[in-house]
Amino acid sequence: MLTDPYFYLVSVPAVLLYGIAKGGFGGAIAMVSVPMMALVMSPTQAAAILLPILVVMDAVVVKTYWGHFDRRALRILLPGALCGVALGYLSAESMSEDWMRVLIGIVALVFGANFLLSRSAAAHKPHNRVSAAFFGGLAGFTSFSIHAGGPPLTVYLLPRGLAPLLFAGTAGMFFAVVNAVKLLPYYLLGQFSGDNLLYSLALVPLAPLGVWIGRFLVERTEPRLYYGIISAFLVLVGLRLLWLGASGVLASPAVTMQAESVLNAIQGVHRMNIVELAPGVGASEQIDPRDMPAIAAAGYKVVLNNRPDGEVPGQPGSAEIAAAAAAHGLEYRYLPVTAMNFPGAALADVAAAFDGDGPVLAYCRSGTRSTNLWVVSRPAGERADARERARQLGYDLSMADRLLAGH
């Protein structure tokens, strides 16, 4: 990819825009960087390449804005942010990225539009510990999960009426700490690889240039115009997040399954929902022992459980499912996995769980973990087609992307 001109065509402006935002100008404009780079690579790989560059940018921001930041704001925002990062790491699989985009999109759109219409950013509202804990935590959580920490932080800082330099410096110091804290959990989740770090190295000289351009623009922009620009970008990013999130939610088979489950519960009917990933491979949400006759009738020979026991109260246990499968002549395999230990076993063992001995039905809470496992277990020559099939079905492949980006 280093010899591909398209890589530089999109990556150079993406890194410069991120640097300008890091330098304090445009704020949420940084949100366009990952989508730009995703034109030539996966979004997860783009985020992994950007993170080391962001750390360099943060170092430049700290040097550039040292002494120009609101100490009280950082004291009350950062504890919540660190808790948010920890929560993002611990819930990396159980939280829906699309629903988070919808949530942050609505918050950014409402607050950004309010500031544009009323210019309430000039109200100089005092700091509030409860509000700071909430928006700081939300910024840390969404920064870790979907690289969208800017809108929640902006929503908190805008009403404080800080001078442009103080606003930019405070945001810069905040994310310098957050991004440094994110390094270890990102490493544990397999975000870094030799190739990705090489791409980062090729782009890192742009980091200080972008930050310096941002600082230059901040120093020469009148406060009212500066806040108008920040609010406008907050609205635009809110619209984009809302669109991406809503599109993902509506396309997700997990949502369809859940909606059908709710309808079935209202009607007092139990129905299983199976999504065909490929001939002989199906994925499903949590199944019930009562589903075994239908699974056998559908031609499946193997039931593969990818959900650890005890995730939620009332969840059918592995032993219960295994007994029901055996009673109907089905082979039962147990390969539990979470986002933190994905893929949970050697890829050869995962592939063996999906291959051989007849058609396989894999299940977890929503089918997402099972689908990610199926994608990463495919031979290298089949993986691209498997990934495309899963994306067409609307599955979130962030776990698979993180693992494959490290290989």
Describe the fold and architecture.
- With 407 residues, this protein is mainly alpha-helical.
- The protein is 64% helix and 5% strand.
- The protein has two domains: 247 residues, no CATH class; 152 residues, Protein tyrosine phosphatase superfamily (Protein-Tyrosine Phosphatase, Chain A, Alpha-Beta Complex), CATH 3.90.190.
- The chain contains 18 helices and five strands.
- The chain has a five-stranded mixed beta sheet, with helices on both faces.
- α14 links the parallel β3 and β4.
- α3 crosses α8 and α3 crosses α18.
- The radius of gyration is 23 Å and the shape is elongated.
- The relative contact order is 0.13.
Key terms:
mainly alpha; 5 strands; Protein-Tyrosine Phosphatase, Chain A; 407 residues
Q: What oligomeric state do the depicted chains represent?
A: single chain
For the terminal residues, how far apart are their CA atoms?
15 Å
Strands, total number = 5
Helix content: 55-70%
- The spatial strand order of the largest sheet comes to 1-2-5-3-4
Written as H for each helix and E for each strand, in order along the chain, the element string is HHHHHHHHHHHHEEHEHEHEHHH
| Fraction of residues in β-strands | 5-15%
Residue windows where pLDDT falls under 50 for at least 5 positions? none
Query: Any idea what the shape is?
Result: elongated
Number of domains: 2
Indicate the radius of gyration in whole angstroms.
23 Å
Chain-averaged pLDDT: 81
Q: How would you classify the helix and strand content by structural class?
A: mainly alpha
Largest sheet: 5 strands, mixed
* Total helical segments: 18
